[in-house]
Design goal:
By secondary structure, the protein is α/β, with parallel strands linked by helices. It has two domains: 7-18 and 88-217, Rossmann fold (3-Layer(aba) Sandwich); 20-81, Putative phosphatase, domain 2 (DNA polymerase, domain 1, Orthogonal Bundle). The protein has helices spanning 20-33, 41-45, 52-60, 64-81, 92-101, 114-123, 145-158, 173-181, 209-217; strands at residues 7-10, 17-18, 87-88, 106-113, 132-136, 166-170, 186-189, 204-206. Strand 6 (166-170), helix 8 (173-181) and strand 7 form a beta-alpha-beta unit. The radius of gyration is 17 Å and the shape is globular. Keywords: Hydrolase. It holds the Pfam family HAD_2. One of its GO terms (cellular component) is cytosol. This is HAD family hydrolase.
Length: 218
Amino acid sequence: MTRTWSAILFDLDGTITDSAPAITSSLARTFTLLGRPVPSDSELLSYVGPPMLEAFQEYAGMTPDEAVEAIAVYRAEYHGAASLDTAVYPGIAGLLERIHAAGIPLALATSKPELSAIAILTHFDLAKYFTATVGASADETRSKKTDIVAEALARLAVTGVDTSAAVMVGDRSYDAVGAQANGIPAILVEWGYGSPAEAAAATAVVHSTDQLAKLLLG
């Protein structure tokens, strides 16, 4: 699959950062504050990756209005935990630096709220590598991965980037489906939060940053 890519899109949670501790602890507090039973640790982990609006409805059986309320509570809880309980996966910062140095434009495409994503990239001094950073809109009208990938490609194109040979790097089937819906291949990483079954949706699967680097840089 090694080829010359014109642009590379990265997911954030489970791909660049290990954010599960911050997300699951914030979710647990959210359920407590809402007076709902707190899901098990494994159940909470399933919330990492998909749009949160969908996750609250699918996994917790909330109505759309209840999910909107839950998101507001969750975001308030997560704001204080994000930088404390989040870490960049080993080798990722160096890989992003190499991609940037090679002149390949980078975009972030995450279901996390866009402002939160920008803050996390800035906190870890990674924002400088990205031409575009796209996340869920504040009102959740843009939250599906398909729409987020489309917006990332559009923002790259506006800056003059050739997106005809773009690729998506993520860890969940949502990343692969979002990429394929926009006509680009997807590489899934095994160090994230996806299950083995989700790998079937990917064009390629990698188990290390070294292996990922070979596919992206040759």
